[in-house]
Write a structure and sequence with these properties.
By secondary structure, the chain is α+β, with helices and mostly antiparallel strands. Helices cover about 20% and strands about 35% of the residues. The protein contains four helices and twelve strands. The strands form three sheets. The chain has a five-stranded antiparallel beta sheet. Strands 3-9-6-11-4 form a five-stranded antiparallel beta sheet. The longest helix has 11 residues.
């Protein structure tokens, strides 16, 4: 179940908001410029579905986003608990960073925790199957896939070279809870 928790950036123990209501999650995030939607596949998918099948099943909302925001590259990333580099990959995303373009992720299966540092607040968004989040360019954030990652996600990019992080040097991410 999707979840939004909002904290002050100085108190990672006491959420100001804690909800699993998708409409409330969308409204709270929209109010701070974060896009959050839920999509449904146009055809049945399984854990063995290929990237091509996944992209075809979500072609309509993908094409809508591409037209709206000018995204030029789309791919599917899958990571399992058996991946030999899962620890290094997890660490790569855990430090607060920014991107020069939007970070757009749609979870086909599994989950991931996006933590957005907006002003004096931290928004923790647990995205699960059917959740799309679009983090605007230059938004400080970090991401946790958990110690046993198991997800597939569609990624959209304006830069065909894909994901490039600019780390902020802040230790804020180390003060907030992560996935097990």
């Amino acid at each position: 179940m999707s979840q939004l928790r909002i904290f002050t950036d100085t108190d990672p123990a006491t959420p100001l908001v804690d909800t699993t209501d998708p409409a409330l999650i969308q409204a709270q995030l929209h109010a701070v410029g974060i896009q959050f939607e839920q999509w449904h596949a146009s055809a049945p998918l399984t854990a063995d579905s290929t990237a091509e099948q996944i992209l075809q099943s979500y072609a309509e909302p993908i094409n809508r986003l591409k037209a709206q925001a000018g995204y030029q590259a789309v791919d599917v990333i899958s990571l399992s608990a058996h991946h030999p580099d899962k620890v290094a990959l997890r660490q790569k995303f855990l430090a607060e960073h920014r991107h020069s373009e939007d970070e757009v992720r749609f979870f086909v299966r599994g989950q991931g925790l996006f933590c957005l540092h907006l002003g004096d607040k931290v928004y923790q968004v647990l995205c699960q199957q059917q959740d799309l989040i679009s983090v605007p360019a230059n938004t400080p954030h970090w991401f946790d896939m958990g110690s046993q990652p198991d997800f597939s996600a569609i990624r959209l990019f304006t830069n065909p070279d894909g994901w490039v992080a600019n780390y902020t040097g802040s230790d804020i991410a180390s003060r907030f809870a992560l996935l097990p």
